[in-house]
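Pasting two entries for a bug report.
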Amino acid sequence: MLFRQLFDVETSTYTYLIADLGTKTAILVDPVLEQVERDRQLLQELGLTLKYCLETHIHADHITGTAKLREITGCLGIVPENAQAGCADRFMKDGEVIELGSVKVEAIATLGHTDSHNAYLVNGTHLLTGDSLFIRGCGRTDFQSGNAGMMYDAVTQKLFTLPDETLVYPGHDYRGHTVSTIGEEKQCNPRFAGGNREEFIQLMANLNLPNPKKIMEAVPANQRCGNVAA
């Protein structure tokens, strides 16, 4: 398996390139519109055919590159079950698996950041957590029908039941972290370690964060799979 972590500096967003080297087919998870040329060039350099663009959720902080990549490569755009994106080629529900040769990508429904959100477990070892779990943090729950209680349940009852050595790759990082493990986050993540569900809900209700800069343009564009024009 080929696995690459790519970064967009403006929005602190990670995009993941996953490929099967036998079939030379690839998946991009959470591509960013402004980085489409970077992603296209990397696919070309590695001789990979893009089969799918996979979203963890409908993003509020950046516009997805899926529409542009679909236009360039003919790939399919996939979003979580119940996402408000009628343009998607496919919706992926909890437990569904996509296979590319020897690579298996399993969806794990992790609601809470938004009302439709998937984490993706790759070959049982690499967990792409989107905005449900960050390294020493988690995504916010105060808009897009977010729900702190549902996030706590998804992280503690689903993600934290995976083996401790499972590698955690988040959708964003703002402090320079690139990878963690489930065992490390269970022990060190200040949002979840040592507290209970009610304390987590109270903590999330009092973050008082400003809205993402691109929320007004990003959400409607992403409901059109990244098409900027209405």
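Entry 2 (this is the one that rendered wrong in the viewer):
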Amino acid sequence: MISLLRIDDRLIHGQVAYGWTSALGVNVILVVNDEAKNDQMKAMALNLAKPSNVKLYIRGVQESGEIAQKFSQSQKSKVLVLVKNTSDAVELARLSEGVINEVNVGGLRYSEGKRKLTDLVAVDDQDLANLKEMEEMGIELEFRMLPRDKKKGLKDMI
């Protein structure tokens, strides 16, 4: 079962490792990121950042659609999927053919050309197009940092 897909440019950190994994009761984190898959140091750092009782898989974007489909049918695995940006999220949503139902937007740092939606989420035109495409696919979008925070939708943010 896939519990949630989270967009967070830091991937695994304290909010994710202890806030989201325990609130969702996940036993697997699937990081979908080509850079982390191909960089052993990043992969090792992500493995150290996860809770000890949670399995970590790091896979590339193109191979993860099929993996997400398999996890969605699993009775034993409760999975938190992490991606670094909206482009990877929308691509994974396309490739996984409807098994992603909910996306949490938790952290997209500000850089030149982006505008802030919250203190920790900044987007550019491509990010907005990707988020709108996911909504059109029937995926529920929520903006919140921690599980205890109030959910806000895309319409609340723009």
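Dev reply: Rendering is fixed now. As a check, the viewer should reflect this: The two ends are 31 Å apart (CA to CA).
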